[in-house]
Input
Amino acid sequence: MRSGSAGGASSPVPPASAALPQSLAGFRIGVTSDRRSEDLISAFERRGAEVMHAPALRIAPMTESVTLQRDTRLVVEARPDHTIITTAYGMRRWAEAADAYGLGTALHEALEGSSVLVRGPKARGAVRAAGLDDDGAADDERTATVVDMLLQKDLTGTTVAFQLHGRTDHEQIARIEAAGARVITVMPYMWAKPAEDSALLRMIDAVIERQLDIVTFTAAPAVDAFLEVAHQYGRAAALLEAFRSDVVSAAVGDVTAAPLHEAGVRPIIPSRWRLGAMIRLVCDHLEEHQTLRLDTRHGPVELRGAEVRFPEVTDQPVRLAPGPLALMRALVKAEGAVLSREHLLAVLGHCDSEHALEMWVSRLRKALPVSSVVSTVVKRGYRLAV
Output
């Protein structure tokens, strides 16, 4: 399923040479990130998952930007009293750009005389790697909290250098300026939309059609872009319904999750906001909550993502098409109870007639190694033989 091209200190991803249990076999995962996407894709694929990759936004470094060079010179000349560093990636790109402009030493000296606040541990690591120190970090890794910390000081007549997180944060800039400070913004990189929406649209459709089990997000602007494209092409309502019901969303942290919460979606979030922690959470969640098991007359049945397994009948998993898969999931969840045709027509998307339901039942039976596990209860409906 993988399509398309496949931030500071973070939880380590195991080396490619390490043998991993196929804990994600059968599951289908969407990856929307650009930077470090290969880490995510590799981690999921090595655990047996199928991965679809479609960056919602791409990060464009601004090293050659005239604006970044101008703003770096302004910071050097202003010798700011305070500096806010929001991202490790931004700090590194800014230092590299300053070196390219011949301003590396001057920028270091300007920031060394400044009181530096950072958004979190990764930004702190980049600041220290640059030979600088900081005077505090936000516990919740939010830019607004860093500004709260700054506003505890008397800013009247001071200058604040503000490294932006890929886009202009008008709200936080206004708060600082209202306190009497001059703000010099610096944008070492920008979020940019992909040249075409086609890959992202394919992922949106895959979510709507329940061809993905989980979609991962690592940046709030990427979530905004993902939802914006769905809205632009008239798919927003169907996408959100899928996220609220059958397809899980995973966010690397609360900041990333905020646009999902605003849209009424409840993503899973690791307690530690790191890439490795999100990978472990995805593995645990799919195993514990998305893997269905049931004992039947033909032995145990296990449904993992799009695959159904009858381990006492065959070693080979069966990959089901979306329609029969949705039907099998409903039958397994019913644990042998009879599901009426009316009920199945109400809960199965894209199954809009009894004839269509009969076709799905027929295709499911043909796909399974033991067709008789799906029983017809005359004049009542269907059930699994338990």
About this structure: Confidence is low (pLDDT under 50) at residues 1-12. Residues 11 and 338 are 46 Å apart (CA to CA). The longest strand covers residues 291-296.
